[in-house]
Model the fold of this input.
Amino acid sequence: MIRSIKQAIAETLNYSGRSKRSDYWYYLVFMLLSIVIISTIVLFLGLNPEDPLFTQVSFFTGTLLIIPNIALTVRRAHDFGVTGWIAVPIFVIGFIGTYQETFGILDWAGLALSTVVGLMPGHKGPNKYGAAPA
Done:
């Protein structure tokens, strides 16, 4: 798990090649745990979620975590043989969905697309995006 997280962060700007399903899921778990831990610390320090500093910390944390996730999603798409541009609607839908008051249709669509990317089996052996991930 640690190897997958380190690799995702190290390959933040690598949009070529392929990534395994386990790398994708381990990084998503890492993102979720990071957000929960940082939010808990900020709340423990007494910041109200309506406080602008809380918003800034959340935005900064989310930005730092999402950038490696975009590259990882592109590489996951490559693993099952489709263009990495499939990541664009996933992140646009997710971005728009975060500004809704309730968990709406866009959130469900983003969650469904992310799940598909995470569950699709990769091609065995090389494909046009490179060798199978080790």
In short: The chain has a mean pLDDT of 87. The longest helix spans residues 52-79. The chain is about 65% helix and 0% strand.
